[in-house]
Structure formats: C-alpha cells, structure tokens
Records
---
Amino acid sequence: MTVTETETTTGTGADTCAGPPQGDRRPDGADKYTISEVVALTGLTAHTLRWYERIGLMPHIDRSHTGQRRYSNRDLDWLALVGKLRLTGMPVADMVRYAELVREGDHTYTERFELLKQTREDVLSRIAELQGTLAVLDRKIGFYADAGRALASERAR
Amino acid sequence: MTVTETETTTGTGADTCAGPPQGDRRPDGADKYTISEVVALTGLTAHTLRWYERIGLMPHIDRSHTGQRRYSNRDLDWLALVGKLRLTGMPVADMVRYAELVREGDHTYTERFELLKQTREDVLSRIAELQGTLAVLDRKIGFYADAGRALASERAR
DNA sequence: TAGAACCCTGGAGTGCACTCCAAGCAAGCG
DNA sequence: CGCTTGCTTGGAGTGCACTCCAGGGTTCTA
C-alpha cells in the first residue's frame, strides 16, 4: 500500500471544513489552472506561489507546452493545507520539511505522523494561549465599560 | 474621574489568569527592578525591553541616580498585557498606538475601548481559524493512523 | 580596591516571509 | 500585424520584530 497525500483529492474523501468557499474547482482530469486562477482561488500572490515552488514548499508544478505553470486540483489541496498550517504560525521551513517527507515516500510515514501530532499539540496550546488573552481582554473591556457607565452617570447629574 | 491603566496594579483588582506564575513581585512601594530582573520575570531580552521603550511601547521607565532603568510593578503589568497582545499576533505598531492613547489621557477613552473590542473580535476569529485547522489536522492524523493500522495488519499476515 | 558582572547608548545587522523588478517570451484580439 | 495582457526567470528589495555590537560607565563581591 502507498501512503501519499492523495487523501484530500476530491475522489477519496470529502474535503470537510475547507475554510472559505473555494468552489470553482474544475472536475479532476480537466483540472488545469493558470497561476492567475490559483491567485484568485487561494488569495496568495503569483509571486508567493512561485516562491513556494522555489523553496520546495510545492511539488514541481506541471507546465504547458510553452513552460507556463498549470496547477492541478491536488496542488490546490496542498495549498489549502499549507494555508491552514500557515495560520497556525508554523514556520515555512517546517512546512518545507513536511513537503520533503511527502516527496520522499512511504518510509517517512512515521515521521510525518509525529509531525502532524506535534503540530496538533501546538495548535491546542495556541488556542489555550488565545483564550487566556481573551480573558484578559474581557476583564479590561469590562473595566472600560464600567468606567464608561460611571462617566455617563456623572454627566447625567 | 480618571481612566488610566492603573486597574491592573496589585491594589485595584486581582490579576486573574496571568499565564505563567510570574510571582516574585516586590510589594508596591518597594517595586524597583533592574532590567535583568525584568528579563528573568518576563522572558524578554534586555535588548527587547530597551527597544520597546525606544519605539514608545513602554512609558519612560524610572531611572536610578546613575541612569539605570528601574522598573515598577506597573511596568510589569504593562509588559504582561503587551505579552498577551503580542501572542494574538497584534502588530507592535498597533500596541504602540494603544500605548499612545493611554499616555494621552482620558479623552482617548472611547478609542481605547473600541480598540480593545476590535482586538477581542480578532482573537475570537483567530481561535475559530485555529479550530478549523485543528479539524483538518485531526482528519489527516486519522488518515495516518488508519494507514498505520493497515500497514500493521499487512505485516501481521 | 580590584575584578567580575551588569548596564548604558546609537546604530548596524539578522532572519523571516514575502514582494518587487527588469527583461523577455507567449497568447488572444481587432 | 500590432497591441494588450499574462507568464517566465534570477536576483534584489521590503517590513517587521527583534538582535547584536562597540565602547564606555556602574555596582557588587572578595
């Protein structure tokens, strides 16, 4: 059996909870997107897409007969994952590491698994941090609201 | 009445949920910390503390008779808030803006209130984003776990 | 009172994640 | 055919948030 990143393609499993709508996908087999279409679909800039490729964060993208990039649905899936990981604050270098593991094939299975689990832990603690911050903000906002009411009743006198 | 940032000092209100222990505070009135003590208490570097001051993110810190910085409990409170805001991803420039509002006094009350409420909204949506990411990670981790079981049972055969 | 450890300043340097540029090829349209 | 728009490349530039340095003064401990 083969453990690759195909599970997110439209055939194998529903792409549950993929943030923004990001419909407008062409059916698999007819999935050839120019870079500007991917820009529209992902919100990234063309610069960034090319840069991702240069640093090894993207696999080598198909090219048209004249050398222009033609992205596939699978590439879009990968970009969606990268987008998710990016907003956890994961450094690009770590994502490149993960991409390398995927390229290297089956025998990196365990390492990928561990990396994902570690990332999951990181996300959980980030959420906890943010909830701590939320508590501080709420306390402060409550203070300002009280002060506001006091000022208002002062004015009313 | 005066709306300043005194509410977090030890006198006025319990400092609920201030992340790490950060005890080791001296009582108000005897609260004079050298920069290296603040480094130990906050985890920031001395460079960063001086830089915060230069860019206006800190009020002007008291100095000893020879010009060395002497931080107060209130300064530590402010740094704790800054730390919280920092890990929401708020840009330093925005925190400087907030610090300016505090320095400008009462008449910036409403603007500060709005800024805090906006920040609260930002934190909430960041948490939501992270939970979306968590769902993606869990799906992926589930996939890897299944693949792992499949591999294991293959080997068992 | 000597030496180590700490603190001061302005300004330069670093690492990250883009972001842009120039110069040139390619594709579609009137 | 000419024009506009889009895509290509390597390399340079940008903005942010630190991070460090040189060269000097200060404070603590033996």
Note: Chain A has two domains: 1-104, 109-157.
---
Amino acid sequence: MALGRAEAGKIESGVRAMAENMADRKKAILRAVTDDYISTAEPVGSRTIARKYGLGVSSATIRNEMADLEEEGYLEQPHVSAGRIPSDKGYRFYVDSLMPERNLTGLEEKKIRAECAKRSDEIQSLIRATAKVLGELSNCASIVIGPGVKTAEIRHIQLVPFSSDSILVLVVTNAGLVEHKILSIEHEMNPVDLENMSRMLNHRLRGRSLSQMRGKVLRDILSDLDAYASFLEQMFELLLSAIRSSDENRVYVDGLMKLLGQPEFSEIERARPILEFLESDDLVLTELSGSASRGLGGAQVTIGSENTREELRECSVICAPYGIRGQVVGTIAVVGPTRIDYSLTIALVAHIAESLSDLLTRTQSIK
Amino acid sequence: MALGRAEAGKIESGVRAMAENMADRKKAILRAVTDDYISTAEPVGSRTIARKYGLGVSSATIRNEMADLEEEGYLEQPHVSAGRIPSDKGYRFYVDSLMPERNLTGLEEKKIRAECAKRSDEIQSLIRATAKVLGELSNCASIVIGPGVKTAEIRHIQLVPFSSDSILVLVVTNAGLVEHKILSIEHEMNPVDLENMSRMLNHRLRGRSLSQMRGKVLRDILSDLDAYASFLEQMFELLLSAIRSSDENRVYVDGLMKLLGQPEFSEIERARPILEFLESDDLVLTELSGSASRGLGGAQVTIGSENTREELRECSVICAPYGIRGQVVGTIAVVGPTRIDYSLTIALVAHIAESLSDLLTRTQSIK
DNA sequence: GTTTAGCACTCACAGTAGTCGAGTGCTAAA
DNA sequence: TTTAGCACTCGACTACTGTGAGTGCTAAAC
C-alpha cells in the first residue's frame, strides 16, 4: 500500500514501531545511504559513508550496521563486493520517517508561476504547460490528467448553428472545460429555435453532471420540447458517446526524455515497458484514477513493488490530485526510478497540484 | 533538396541522367542492396545478393559492380570487411527510380478507416487518432500537425455568457477547428446584448481569417458597436494573443516507442537528439511548415543529410500536407531511420493525408 | 571485353585470461 | 562495543586470440 507524506500522522502502527525501535545511528546510516544513492546512482559502501557523512564511527562499524539493515530488509546488495542500495522497504521508511524537509527554491517557484500563469486562460494550454514544467523540474516523466467531462457539472450548454445540416453543441463544465461536438441534423433549424432550445437546456441541465443526463431529467426535457424530440434524442445519444471517448484525451505526458536520461534507463530495454505504459493513455488513466479518491492535499508516493502494474515495478510514482473549490477534478504525477529524489519531487508535486487548484478555482469559478 | 515521388516527372536533369545511363544490372544490384538492408538492417554482401536475388551472375561480378557503385557514391561500407549499405544518395536514387510500387493491403486500409472514422466528429480526436494509426502502421515516429487557427477563415463566432464577470468567445474556423477563450469583463453584460454582438461579429467577420482581423475591418466594427468599443478592443486583443500561442498546441506526436524499437536507435544516445526534437513542438512545427507550401497530393521525402536540422541527419522524413477543399491546412509526417521502408511509408503517408483531407472536407464543409 | 574462380587480406565480434580495486565479512584486539 | 586488519569476492576493464563474413586483386575462362 502506498502511504503519503501527508498521512504521516496516521501511519500504520507496524511502521511506526519500526521507526521507534530503530537506533538513531542506524537511521542516520540508512538516511546517508539513501541520500547518497539518490544523488549518485552508485551503490554506496561503508567507507563512503564514513568519509562523506561524519557519523564519528569507523567504516567497520558502519559495515556491521549495514549488514543488520540488509538483514532487516532495508538495504540490498547488487552483488557481494558492491556497496548497498536501498530496497523498496528502505525507500518507504526513508520517505515516511527520514527524508529531509524540502521547500522549493525561489527559482523553482518562479518558473512554475511563470509557465502556468501565462497559459491560465485556456485549460488545455494550462494542462500542457503544467506537464511540461513538472517534467522539467523533476527530471522525470510527468503526467497530468485533465479534468474529465463525465462527472463534471454542466455550467453552460449552447447550440450554435454550424452549417445547413449540422449544429455545434457546446458544453462548458464547472472545471472550465469546454467540450464541443458537431451534430448532423436532418432538416435545417432556425437560429431562434436553437437559441430557445439552448435556454431551455440550460435551465434544465445546469448544475447536473453529464452522466446524470439520462432517465427522468431527459424525459422531462423531451416532453417540454416535444417538437424537437427526435432531434434531442439523437443529440443526447451522440453527446453521451462523445463523452465516453473524450476521456482518452485527458492524459498529457511530458519529460519522456528526462526519464531516458536517468542512468537506470540507459539501456532501452529497461525503459521500453515504462515508456509503453506512458504512451497508452487509458492505462495511465486507470492506474492513476485511484489516487483521486484520496482527496486534495499532499502527495502520495508509490514505491517500486508497491505498484500493482508490472511495468512500474522499477519505478516510483508520486502523484497528487488537484481540484476546484475543494472538489477533485484531476491528478498530476511524476514517474521516475525508485531512486527518485523523493524530497524534491514530493514538494514539487504537492506545490504544483496546489497552485493548479488555486489557479483553476480563481479563474474558473462561477461567482 | 527533397524530391517527392509525386514530382518524379519533373525530376532534375542531373538525377535523370544518372538514372538513364546506369546499367540495368547495376540498378538491380542497388535495388537489391537497398531492399535487403531496409528489411534486415545488416550490411549486405555480394554473396547474399547473388544467392537471394537471382541475378544470374556470380558474387565476384556483383562485387565489382558494388565497388563501382561505391565509387559513384551510391553505396558505402561501414568498414572494409563488411557488406555495403546505401548512402543517402543511394536512397535518393532508390526512392526516385528503383523503389517498387506499393499499395496498402486491405488490412492496413481497414485499420486506417476504422481508427479515423470513429473519431471524425471531433477534430482533436481525429488528429490524435491519425497520429496513432500512422505511428502504428509505419513502425516509426509519426507527427500530425493540426489545422491552425491563424490563417483559417472564420466560419462562426459566438459570445456565450460564462459567469458574472466573464464571457466565452467561441470561434469556429472553416477547418472545423473550434477555439475558445474566456474573457474577463468589467461589468455584467446581458445575454441579449451578447447575442446581438455575436450576430454583428458574424456578419462582419465570416469568411475572413483571424490574422486579417485588424485594421479597417476592426475599426468598422468598433464604430458600429461603439457602445461596446472598449470591451471589443479588449476582446480582440486577447483573441489575437490567444491565437498566437495556440499554434503550439497543434503538434501531435506518436509512436516514439516504435522509433526506439528500430535497431539504429537501440543505443539511447543515438535516439536522444531525435526524441528531443520531437518533444519540442515549435521545432517540429517550423521544420515541417515548409512542406505545406508544396500543395496537396503526394508525399515528400527528405533523406538523411538532406535534412537541414542537425538532429535529423540520421533520419528520413516522409511528409504530406492535407487540406480542406483543396486548401492546405496541416501536415502529417513520419520520422524514421534512413533505412525506413520508403515504399510502404510513402504509400501510407500519401493515403492517410488523402483520407484525412476527404474526411475533413466531407464532415467540415459549409454547404 | 566480361565474367568467374581462387586467394590473400582486413576487421568486427566473441570468447578467454589476467589484473585491478572497491567493498565485504570475519576475527581478534582495544 | 568499536576498530584495525586481512582474506576473499566479484564486477569492470584490458589484452589477446580465433573465427568468419566480406572484400580486392589477379589470372584464367568464356
């Protein structure tokens, strides 16, 4: 199971126990090993620890402690004459208890603001820009899942004349998402009729979600506008099918190159399954959709084997939902090697999710 | 310079001369070498040619011919004891004169139709689906540049009430592209006013391009609607700036994984510059924008060193513009190793460009 | 004048052996 | 409990060698 930093307070008692009865020196060593491995990507030996992280004990002592840590499952050895690297369990403990608090530098915050602010007027651009800046700052692959239209409330619906045998149906959701769809019609409709219908539909549908748009509500509308019944039926049909497929267009991935720059993925065969996963929008969508249920605030970390998907067993995923006025509408995530800089990335993801929420709430809210 | 197959008729006289005075057997050998290398990615030796492609002569003869071809610059040798591979010049000659005619199989055509047809109601989806199917069938990276909004004609413009201090401006272009932008306003505007303004704007702007939307036309509108002058000025300002930035969102890339699967890019360091290029939307856009000027019909091939961009010197690019009612609105392209299957890819690109044009013209045209 | 057989030569590639050094575990002394 | 010392392990690197695909050249055959 994935435990987020935000949930450190309600950490499982098992984990807490581990944290408490581990000697401070052991913790320091585990922290040192993890920090070092995160920054160098090389297995770290006892002498390195003794020299670089002045713990006041000799390498032999550290060696003994490391042997213990390995036995307890926090460290592992790629081969017998190499240094140690953290295991997934080791990373988990590091994330939950050892990791240094990290705040974004002014430069980083500035970059985020700059990139996002200038695009905040159009939601697609904003989402794209977010993915880009997240990839750049994390040095890993980044994912942003845009607001979906299915569960969102309808804020506005409008029928626009398009050509003699088609009209454009425009739906604006409360997340500021604008979806549109072109609809063929059998006989021309005059603009005034369309206008009237728009008004009517607005009246009936505002505040409802698109997926609620069936059953009684729909029948009511049909009976109200029965002159157009057959047209409306067709419209709803098409609209619903469009919505079903529009989910695939919600996923934005960036920073694939950054991922390939990580030494663990320098052989392409290691990287391939992950990239394949990231290229498949619907897999990404289903994998991350779980995180939305945790509610806003704080990033969630899934380390290596904690991932259910086979392809991600060598990766860590750090994700956080974002929302509008407290309601979750999407997720942002970073995918990197398990050696990812947790401290930085968590701060980054949490901050960007938050500022995205702010931005959306500020610019998209109905007054 | 890149010469397309469609232009085979008006091929440069220099090239034509080459084609004519090259002995048939030499051509056959060059063709065999190229075909073989395209399918195996291994340098091909004289014995292989003699055995696999029954030319009725011994390997020694072929060896002599190959030495000539190398001297003339059509073949090259990775090292002295390896077989030959085609040079860029060799590929060029192959593409212009030797390549077998290739038609898509029923299966391929079916796949294209299936993938495109089910998305044809919404232009963004259609573009995405096109990029995907192109990547899949070509086994290379694919690029689709969507219709831009800058030069397109306005078909419809509509102001939609959005919130108390903002409205939504909706612009539909003749390419079926729907752009929208949310605009803050100072004081609330009543729906009837908006409707009137929409009508007015439509009347004035329909048929013009957005980039024409300045100067006299604009002044005329302002004087007609001078009660809203300050609002309109602000609106045009924002609209134009939005348009400027929306070009970046036109580029869709897919099939990166396929590219990495090609043996020439199995070392990541070879692939990196190309992937970096493909990740940068604006570079891709400027690089491919030239091809739009060649008019519809037929794919254009740029081989290795013919590419101006350094990153693409190891690649071939096959691209074709697509359009609506004969007018170019975008480009599709495939990027692969110079060893790319020209015959297949050219057929593929040409066919998809054509069917995209058809689809757009059919579904998006004003009657 | 072509074409072909024969042969010496080249060179990438794979496999083997040897060396180096980082890092360990264990033992015994402090 | 900590530390110094030491033997040991094993991946990484280097050097060397054999193999084989493929060439170029020459001389004979057509």
Note: Residues 57-61, 64, 78-82 of chain B lie near DNA strand C (CB under 10 Å from a C1').
